[in-house]
Amino acid sequence: MPLNSAPYTGWGRVLSANAGRARPEKVAALRRHLAETPGPALGALRSYGDAALSGRRAAVDMTRLDRMLAFDPQTGVLEAEAGVRLSDILAHMAPRGWMPAVLPGTGHVTLGGAIAADVHGKNHHQIGSFGQHVESLRLLGPDGTPREVSGDTEPELFRATLGGMGLTGVIESAAIRLAPCPSGTVEVSERRIAGLDAYLDAFAASTAPFQVGWIDATASGEALGRGVLEEAEFSPPGAPYVPARKHRAIPMDAPGFLLSGAVVRAFNTRYFRRIPAAGRSRRRPLAGFLFPLDSLSGWNRLYGKRGFHQFQCVLPTDTARDTLRAMLSEIAASGLAAPLAVLKRMGPGRAGPLSFPMQGYTLAVDFPARPAAAALIARLVERTADAGGRVYLAKDSLARPEHVARMYPELDSFRASVRAADPDGVFETDLARRLALRGNSA
Known about the structure:
GO terms for molecular function: FAD binding; oxidoreductase activity, acting on the CH-OH group of donors, oxygen as acceptor. With 442 residues, the chain is of the alpha+beta class. 27% of the residues lie in helices and 24% in strands.
């Protein structure tokens, strides 16, 4: 199969690979290609660092394998190929009263990518992670042979694949349990939160099924951790589903001065104050609420041609308050943070040994790719490990192997499952090599 030899990057545009990409259009072509030239799969390249990069072997671009194969309206189980985007599932199924139970902040993520990263959404505290709603998988091994994998047939391999970053094989298709979608709109309440303690207290008291907070990562002193909390629930039944609005494209890489400390502080202050002091409520289209940045095509270009890193951690409830305070103080003092910073409450749900979630709070902050930012993130990763938390592998570009060993206590069992499924390491990615996820690199 012909290969696209152009270099490609993750969404952060900092790291790249150039070993080539195959792009099969049919399942038979995919299986033949793997039998001849095995390599890891990639989807829409929405992971931020090197999770989908393969610098040693040609990768398999799954995005043309995007068919929805079967749906059972009695059980809500949808079977689809791995390259279908979650936004397409939502647009197709929401008018029929169904939706993926878990949706991340962008609908461009593919089904295979959502499983590989065990993604989470604004409803994690109630619904859990994506992998917990997967019924079964068709997984291709190093020779292209398919095997049906589920919690009943091969529980260890199945669990290692959920959140396993693609290292157990190529997901050809999957069956997932959808959730009811009673309305095409949601009722959103927005309110200012004065500081970190008030934020965590507000999350703990909220009963809303969807919760997410924007946080001003430049604020300090009494305003440390201030932000805007959004809580949402479905509108009364009957509102039609409206697809996300047409994308506006970022035409060029933004100049660096747009992310200077003074500009970001001014922007964040205005963004915080756009919400009335008394708060506000409004009805929003479901897709617009779930995927707020998807209306801005190529928004990663706002960070300039050097790209950006995202630091995302989750911290257990008992250490979150003190650790978040220390992190936010250091971030604010650095003057390096971009406007995009998010705080969410998480529940205990996770699907596999390398799944990110734990009960507590997750903080995500973007940083333009500068040497000082890399050094800051390294310190934040250390703080995360010391607090008993973990970093999100789908967003990471700077952690080290010793961090992962401290953060993911089931790493040894995961390595055993991966080596059994792929003894020669043909599905190893740049992320897996950097973090020694297989143990000794293949």
